[in-house]
Inverse folding.
């Protein structure tokens, strides 16, 4: 994960499979969390996230629901971006457990 912020217009799941990192979730002023191998995050569309620091072996994989195209937005959201985020449909299943929502 690069050290930059992003806000997706698709829902996203992140799975950490090696190392550890400090992330800020929720954009500037958001919550800072620590993740380690085995952790998974489900981020609703529009959730900003940034890697603040990471171990040398940190590795993460990201995935998006079928039919949703991600769109990295690194500037403050305008009305058109907010409308795209609000229109993102909820997936049928939890991407981590596979259970229906």
């Amino acid at each position: 994960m690069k050290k930059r912020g992003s806000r997706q217009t698709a829902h996203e799941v992140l799975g950490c499979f090696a190392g550890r990192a400090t992330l800020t979730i929720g954009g500037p002023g958001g919550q800072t969390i620590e993740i380690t191998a085995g952790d998974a995050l489900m981020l609703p569309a529009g959730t900003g996230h940034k890697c603040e620091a990471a171990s040398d072996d940190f590795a993460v994989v990201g995935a998006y629901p079928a039919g949703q195209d991600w769109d990295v937005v690194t500037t403050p959201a305008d009305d058109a971006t907010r409308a795209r985020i609000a229109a993102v449909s909820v997936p049928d299943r939890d991407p981590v457990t596979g259970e229906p929502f």
